[in-house]
Amino acid sequence: MNPTPIDEDLVRDALRQVLDPEAGMNIVDLGLVYGIQVTEADGVQLQITMTSAACPMAEMILDEAQAAVEAVLPPATPVVVELVWDPPWTPERMSGFAREHFGWAPR
Fold first, then answer.
1. Confidence (pTM)
2. Is 60 part of a structural domain of the chain?
């Protein structure tokens, strides 16, 4: 039996399970995931931001992102999560679903 191939979609789906507790929305739809790179040699590298540099939940969110991705990968696959600030997060990075949920979608 072949394992599920590791690709960006698998990683993104795992990250949809990680919620920003202050917003009550997953980090993918909030637009906090800036980058996902998957390679055989290096495993998975993630670039994640926060809505604010003052976010008190940043460490918890990053830890949960790491755990969520590791849970769907073969054992011993490296996962590196990097907190980035450039470009700064803005609501325009949110999915249409998130903007509609928060009442920020055009009417």
1. 0.90
2. yes
Q: What is the Cα–Cα distance from 40 to 19, expressed in whole angstroms?
A: 28
Which CATH number is 79's domain given?
Answer: 3.30.300.130
Supply the range of the domain harboring residue 20: 8-101
40 found inside a domain = yes
For the sheet containing 79-83, what is the strand order?
A: 33-39, 43-48, 79-83
18-59, pLDDT tens digit by residue? Answer: 999 999 999 999 999 999 999 888 899 999 999 999 999 999
Burial of 57 (0-12, 13-18, 19+ CB in 10 A): middle
Tokens of 39: 């390679």
The total number of structural domains that make up the chain: 1
- In angstroms, the CA 13 to CA 99 distance is 19
